[in-house]
């Protein structure tokens, strides 16, 4: 799945996103019992099972997760935000958004607004990239780059083994 040989220019799948975030935050796998389309024994089955049981991820339909489905930048931000909220890791400080940020928000679906605002206000999204980049699949390299931007704010919360193997 995701290792040192992973092709970073490819688009991130939903299953890979969960594996990546679970590894980063030290979440251990559990048997998947929630989704019919997640093959037991696959690289992502235990990660999806654990994240689902903790309420960190949701499916794409009734008992469906679509682990091979491509992740749009918007959905990756929502997923990452759910991890930060669920694990009580949200940084309390937020910049005030300007009028431009408010106008761009009109094109962001309601379910994703809180996540997009959090990352936009925190300076984690490139100026002018919202909402343009949100609806495109996110390449693996961009998903990892966002985590690298977040690293200084959250490094103290990561499990010790993840600090040593963080994105350096």
SSE order, as H and E? HHHHHHH
The helix count comes to: 7
What is the overall pLDDT average? Answer: 79
* Global structural class: mainly alpha
Principal-axis shape equals: globular
| End-to-end distance | 20 Å
What is the count of β-strands?
0
Largest sheet: none
**Amount of beta strand:** under 5%
Query: Percent range for helical residues?
Result: 40-55%
What ranges have pLDDT less than 50 throughout 5 or more consecutive residues?
Answer: 163-168
Radius of gyration: 16 Å
Structural commentary:
The chain is mostly helical and 168 residues long. It is globular. The chain has seven helices and no strands.
Element layout with pairings:
Blueprint: H1 14-25, H2 45-53, H3 73-86, H4 99-105, H5 113-121, H6 140-154, H7 160-164
Helix pairs in contact: 1-2, 1-3, 3-5
Q: Can you tag this structure with a few keywords?
A:
168 residues; mainly alpha; 7 helices; 0% strand; globular; disordered C terminus
Brief sketch in words of this structure:
With about 170 residues, this protein is an all-alpha fold.
């Amino acid at each position: 799945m995701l290792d040192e040989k992973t092709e970073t220019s490819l688009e991130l799948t939903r299953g890979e996103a969960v594996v990546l975030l679970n590894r980063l935050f030290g979440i251990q796998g559990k048997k998947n019992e929630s989704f019919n389309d997640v093959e037991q024994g696959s690289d992502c089955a235990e990660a999806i099972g654990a994240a689902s049981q903790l309420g960190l991820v949701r499916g794409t339909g009734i008992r469906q997760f679509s682990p091979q489905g491509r992740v749009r930048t918007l959905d990756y931000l929502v997923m990452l935000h759910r991890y930060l909220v669920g694990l009580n890791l949200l940084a309390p400080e937020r910049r005030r958004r300007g009028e431009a940020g408010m106008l761009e928000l009109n094109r962001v679906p309601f379910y994703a607004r809180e996540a997009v605002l959090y990352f936009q206000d925190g300076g984690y999204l490139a100026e002018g990239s919202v909402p343009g980049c949100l609806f495109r699949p996110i390449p693996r390299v961009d998903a990892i780059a966002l985590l690298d931007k977040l690293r200084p704010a959250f490094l103290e919360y990561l499990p010790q083994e993840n600090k040593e193997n963080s994105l350096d």
